[in-house]
Design brief:
four-stranded antiparallel sheet, alpha+beta, about 10% strand, elongated
């Protein structure tokens, strides 16, 4: 057989690329695995279960479909739910998968973590834009994770002032009024002692800018003193209750059980990773 001419090789390459779909053709003709954008999947897993309709999270459909197909093939999700919508049924299926790996507690909440997502994708897809909370570290006598600490440090830089915590993360049962939001990672209460109303608002705005769903909380809203409650969007250690708060934040709500309209400062909603790329 005669070797391909350069023109024929170019045509063959174009044909391979056109047939690739979600995959990418490699030089040796072997198709690369599809990719799953972890940031997009985790965002959808927080927002979609809180929606009143079946609107898809922008930019997440292709990746969510890959995850749902893998869950389906493990007989954890019915075919009818393979739709690119990471709703409560997909959350439950992913939680079952996490438990099958031996995970418990916040590691089996249905919110994908890097390790479980990578294992799910073995021989199926490659995980891109991987995210993780990092190790747990101390702050103001409380515990947070490294990602949260970095976010708080950047908010302090923007504000030009130190922030002090009233409550940190990983505090299950530590404060019954928190309704479980502090049971996992990514959630803090910031002290507002000595702050004027305008300063409280400025702090909430800075926290939102770096990727927190943050609100100034008043005694009129619940059995608590004035403080700023902040949940780090896309923290994969979020408790289920905190996941609901971050989802509600995207939907323009206040993160409280009554699901009222958002009463915080208006900023462009973004995650910590999106903030760093901007």
């Amino acid at each position: 057989m005669k070797p391909f001419s350069s023109a024929a090789a170019l045509v063959a390459g174009v044909l391979l690329a056109s047939l690739g779909g979600a995959s990418t053709a490699l030089a040796d003709g072997v198709a690369a695995q599809p990719t799953v954008n972890m940031e997009a999947v985790v965002k959808a897993a927080q927002i979609d279960p809180r929606r009143a309709d079946d609107t898809l999270t922008p930019g997440a459909k292709t990746s969510v479909l890959q995850v749902e197909q893998a869950l389906r093939d493990r007989e954890l999700l019915d075919e009818k739910w393979v739709d690119g919508y990471f709703g409560t049924t997909t959350i439950a299926a992913y939680a079952k998968y996490q438990k099958s790996l031996g995970y418990t507690g916040i590691a089996a909440s249905g919110l994908p973590g890097k390790a479980s997502l990578t294992k799910l994708g073995a021989d199926r897809f490659t995980v891109t834009h991987a995210i993780g909370p990092g190790p747990r570290v101390p702050m103001d006598g409380a515990v947070v994770n490294r990602r949260t600490l970095d976010m708080l440090a950047e908010a302090e830089r923007l504000l030009g002032r130190k922030l002090v915590l009233d409550q940190g993360s990983y505090n299950p049962g530590g404060d019954p009024t928190s309704a479980g939001t502090h049971d996992g990672g990514g959630v803090v209460d910031v002290s507002v002692n000595g702050m004027e109303p305008a300063t409280r608002k400025a702090v909430a705005r800075a926290l939102r800018r770096v990727g927190f769903a943050a609100w100034v909380r008043s005694p009129a809203q619940g059995d608590w003193p004035w403080h700023i409650h902040a949940a780090a969007i896309n923290d994969t250690d979020l408790s289920s209750q905190a996941q609901h708060q971050t989802g509600d934040y995207y939907l323009g709500l206040d993160g409280l059980s009554g699901r009222g309209p958002d009463d915080g400062p208006k900023v462009a909603i973004r995650t910590w990773e999106e903030y760093q790329r901007d």
